[in-house]
């Protein structure tokens, strides 16, 4: 196999277009390229999170996810392809259950933050949600398999749980959300705070 990346600067995208895996060219502002970029950004943030991760189990999980996201990028790059499947979605669901089992139940909304790794996990979660929105928008315009959307949805759940895992292992408590100095009543499952942003539950 030849060297695929022997030439980095090609100038072929100077006209504002880029090539897809099937050889076609599309505008860099297209929905598909936007989704690709969001997934790539998510992968980069996870790489940053991995660099702040010492625990081998978490490093292995992040590496597994990064490879899956690269596969997702390949699927988005090739219209009609199906790379991610239900097995990858089920794997994320199993990880959510396993890591969440050892955490204390949430009774209040929490703020993104804590130790640096937890804060980065929360950042990755928000980027993941943005990537999910881009993939959903693409699916409204072009045929797209359901697995990528489901994968990103589950991944945001997992990143929320992992943020709490990072804090617990670092001995840092979750920062509870309070409004006007008062602790709110315990939220309903899947409920959203008044600002419409869900920082204590990944359910969506």
Automatic annotation (TrEMBL):
Residues 1-26, 176-204 are annotated as: Disordered. This is Corrinoid adenosyltransferase. Residues 8-165 form the Cobalamin adenosyltransferase-like domain. Homotrimer. It catalyses: 2 cob(II)alamin + reduced [electron-transfer flavoprotein] + 2 ATP = 2 adenosylcob(III)alamin + 2 triphosphate + oxidized [electron-transfer flavoprotein] + 3 H(+); 2 cob(II)yrinate a,c diamide + reduced [electron-transfer flavoprotein] + 2 ATP = 2 adenosylcob(III)yrinate a,c-diamide + 2 triphosphate + oxidized [electron-transfer flavoprotein] + 3 H(+). The keyword Amino-acid biosynthesis does not apply. One of its GO terms (biological process) is cobalamin biosynthetic process.
């Amino acid at each position: 196999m030849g060297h695929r990346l022997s030439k980095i600067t090609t100038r072929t995208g100077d006209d504002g277009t880029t090539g897809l895996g099937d050889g076609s060219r599309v505008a860099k502002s297209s929905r598909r390229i936007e989704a690709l970029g969001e997934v790539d950004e998510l992968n980069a943030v996870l790489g940053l999170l991995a660099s702040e991760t010492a625990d081998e189990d978490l490093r292995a999980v992040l590496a597994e996810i990064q490879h899956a996201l690269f596969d997702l990028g390949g699927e988005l790059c090739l219209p009609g392809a199906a790379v991610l499947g239900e097995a990858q979605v089920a794997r994320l669901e199993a990880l959510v259950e396993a890591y969440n089992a050892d955490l204390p139940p949430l009774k209040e909304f929490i703020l993104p933050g804590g130790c640096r790794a937890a804060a980065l996990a929360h950042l990755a979660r928000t980027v993941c949600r943005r990537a999910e929105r881009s993939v959903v928008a693409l699916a409204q315009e072009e045929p797209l398999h359901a697995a990528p959307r489901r994968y990103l949805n589950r991944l945001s759940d997992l990143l929320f749980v992992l943020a709490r895992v990072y804090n617990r292992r670092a001995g840092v408590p979750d920062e509870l959300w309070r409004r006007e100095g008062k602790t709110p009543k315990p939220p309903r499952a899947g409920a959203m705070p008044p600002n419409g942003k869900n920082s204590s539950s990944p359910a969506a």
